[in-house]
TrEMBL record:
Species, as recorded: Blastochloris tepida
Transmembrane segments: 41-66, 73-96, 147-171, 191-215
Protein's name in the database: Calcineurin-like phosphoesterase domain-containing protein
InterPro entries, sorted: Calcineurin-like_PHP (IPR004843), CNP_phosphodiesterase-III (IPR050884), Metallo-depent_PP-like (IPR029052)
Pfam families hit by this protein: Metallophos (PF00149)
UniProt KW DNA damage keyword: no
An MF annotation (GO) of this entry: metal ion binding
Similarity-based family: Belongs to the cyclic nucleotide phosphodiesterase class-III family.
PANTHER family cross-referenced by the UniProt entry: CYCLIC NUCLEOTIDE PHOSPHODIESTERASE CBUA0032-RELATED, PHOSPHOHYDROLASE
Calcineurin-like phosphoesterase domain: residues covered: 239-345
Amino acid sequence: MAAIIDPRQGDAEDDASSTKQRSLLSLAGSLLAEINLPKLALTWVLLIGAPALLLGLAPLVASIWLSTVSAKVAYALSGLGSALLLAGVVALGWFGGPRLIRMAEHNFWALNSLAVQPIYAMAREALRQLAESLLASTASAERRAALRAAIAAVAGLVVAVPAVLLVVLVWPRTRWVGTAADLAEPSQLALAALANGFVLIVGYFAAAALVWGFADAAMAQPRDIRFAPPPEPGRRRWRIAHLSDIHAVGERYGFRLESGRAGSRGNGRLRHALARLDALHAAQPLDVVLVTGDVTDAGRSAEWAEFFDALARHPALAERLLILPGNHDVNVVDRSNPARLDMPFSPNKRLRQLRTISAMAAVQGGRVRVVDVAAGRIGPTLDEALAPHRAAMREFADTGTLHHILAMADLWAGLFPLVYPPDTEDGLGLILLDSNADTHFSFTNALGLVSAAQVRGIEIAKAHYPAARWLVALHHHVVEYPMPAKHLSERIGTALVNGSWFVRRLQQILPGAVVMHGHRHIDWIGACGSLRIVSAPSPVMEAKDDKPTHFLIHTLADGADGGLDLLEPERIVIAGEPASEAATVH
């Protein structure tokens, strides 16, 4: 049966969300044309408008309360009333404190991810692109690093100055002290509150841009490194197969949403990579097979099923496999429509997280442990931590009912970091992080951050295993790569929103650690201060089926200073398959 259009080769619809086939401007145009404006308006009100209004209203309400109500309240709360109020405050802090802290932190970093980081990063990378184009090609690495640091500070100023001017412009409309008479004119009170909120947010924007700029300038700049020489006999080594962004799809001829027809179709390349890895393991055993996120293309059930089907053929690899969530596993709202968004109370995001939790439990549930941050200790295994929630998880997966949404959100937030304990006192331990920002657009699914609670979990793991060597794994890249780029779009890589802070904290807690990540599919190994950073290529993305791809097997050795030595990796090539020239449907 001859086909005019071979459906196995795909068509333009398969490129709808592809950043390889379409420009960012084209994708943005599609977003504006197809976005659901009522949902966007409601989401904006819930996530930005209402918090800004409440923020601006707070000083007005506080001043009204202090001036007119405080005396009456003080009288009413004397004796038994004050005791009841104290008990209520204690109960609120005890039962609601952790959730309120997470909400505050989420909103704080959401502001950064929506405004500060994208605008600051675009300014910084645009200036770097311009400066490096004027820099001589023979410039030394030290000079390039100094230039990158200086431009970070300049970018902070470039972003902060206009923000300060906006604050000065709006300041006359603000009002920070209210009276009881204002309650009779709520519209005027709301306008003053909006002006207050605008000034507070934009003022923070200016201050944060300066802090980001000078923090980036002050920190050690990323650089290429030389690998450690082979260790002396007797020193312990660990072989780590590092894969990332394998993007399992749910259809035999399905294309990936990011690459579209410019990438591979189906899961054949994934199966070839696993088969090659299994053969290598049989010849020279691996200690860990690490997949740093984007296990699936969009976090759908069929994609996870395809991943498990491929893995089932290689039980020896499954016994050593560790996975963690990437943005494609939890943050893609719609594979074909970047304009679609999830409402804050939508069950779909929690369902994607639930599938990921279930997959992690199936792969490594008995081998990794959660961290009890509140108690300051290493907690039970992942399987044990999930045991009380299994019935609720199954019910939510089956019904998607709203009354489980908060519980599922809390469950997800409390699972990370996951710790793969060292097998000996001074052995190798792995810390698995969730670096995904809580976004609602498919278009913004790639944003990432690491929460303060997870960093506290790293501190607890270090204290529990003080002599261990550590490998820290996450999905997002922690710094932008120190390499020239032909186009500005190649430089805006959505590194961690709080990447500078995270790197500085990690240098303090685990100065000799190795950090492994994926996300950008870029093969780069370097350092930032005392941290060694390994960015994984994708064995599936970035090439059609007839082109080769590769992944790396790393050898780590115990360092003399209690850290890790990073040896030159082994490059494993996955050969392409000849493209079929037949346009025949059988």
